[in-house]
Automatic annotation (TrEMBL):
Record keywords, A-Z: DNA-binding, Transcription, Transcription regulation
Biological source species: Endozoicomonas lisbonensis
Pfam families: HTH_18
PROSITE patterns noted in UniProt: HTH_ARAC_FAMILY_2
Keyword field contains DNA-binding: yes
Protein name: AraC family transcriptional activator of pobA
Domain HTH araC/xylS-type as annotated: residue spans: 175-273
Signal peptide residue numbers: none
Length: 276
């Protein structure tokens, strides 16, 4: 571990990378993504973790990682395909945003992978091969690549679980709220702050979050604090006191009680369990 989580960025001047490799040695260390990534293994075998939760690597399964998440690969296996792209590379509109939410599930609406079938493997493989060829050019056509990537993601979105309606995004205010929480959860823990930003009363905002997400605004903020604390405990050597202050708590003892109440264990116990 280190005193901070390594930040990994895309190469300068390249908004998209598409590659296939057999050696995964460079993907072992924990790192926080500043880009979107799709990991597609052609074979069963290997393992990796996303936000300290370990997943087995399987064929016909594509893993999706979005900016801010922590990724560590102990062994990705052989014949792995990777697609990485910068935020903002794809056009931003309501339809595109909903597609991105469906594929990457930014707000933990599902597990971070999508299972496909053999037909999808063939069809997506064709798009992937075209992107690889274009990516290898000295001066890739980034507009063409954007269109190919969008087609790839739209096709992949069709394989998300049929039970997932993502109904929370029928009300755009819920998506806006989740973005606000991501931006301000360390500094702002009052429902009123978020309600004011969305021109709603606190009561009405809580009605919406209970309806679409099954939690109050406070519950969503607490979930976000715990997730970030888990990341810091699992992948850095920062003292619990330091993490507490970074999360916006002046009293480390209170923070530890808060953490235990929500997770059932102390921060120290969680860190010890992760590194058994």
């Amino acid at each position: 571990m280190s005193s901070s989580i390594e930040q990994v960025t895309m190469p300068r001047g390249r908004p998209l990378n598409v590659l296939e490799f057999d050696n995964d040695d460079s993907f072992i260390r924990p790192h926080r993504h500043e880009y979107f990534e799709i990991i597609w293994s052609r074979k069963d075998g290997g393992r990796h973790s996303i936000d300290f939760i370990e997943y087995p690597v399987k064929a016909l399964r594509l893993y999706t990682i979005f900016p801010g998440q922590v990724h560590e690969s102990s062994q990705l296996g052989d014949h792995v395909r990777l697609i990485t792209f910068k935020p903002g590379y794809l056009d931003s509109n309501v339809r595109q945003n909903r597609m991105m939410e469906k594929v990457f599930s930014f707000h933990q609406a599902r597990v971070p992978y999508i299972n496909i079938d053999e037909m999808a493997e063939q069809e997506l493989g064709k798009l992937f091969s075209i992107m690889v060829r274009e990516n290898k050019k000295a001066e890739p056509d980034w507009d063409l690549q954007e269109s190919l990537l969008s087609s790839f993601l739209y096709y992949l979105a069709g394989y998300t679980s049929e039970g997932e309606t993502h109904s929370e995004f029928n009300d755009e205010r819920i998506g806006q709220l989740l973005q606000l929480i991501d931006q301000h959860f360390c500094q702002e823990r009052k429902t009123g702050f978020y309600a004011n930003r969305l021109n709603l009363t606190g009561k009405r905002l809580n009605e919406l979050t209970r309806k679409y997400l099954g939690k109050t605004v406070t519950g969503l903020i607490h979930d976000r604090i715990i997730l970030e604390t888990h990341r810091e405990l699992a992948f850095t050597t920062k003292a619990v006191k330091t993490i507490a202050i970074e999360m916006g708590y002046d009293d480390p003892s209170y923070f530890c009680r808060f953490f235990r109440r929500l997770t059932g264990e102390s921060p120290a116990a969680f860190r010890k369990r992760v590194f058994k």
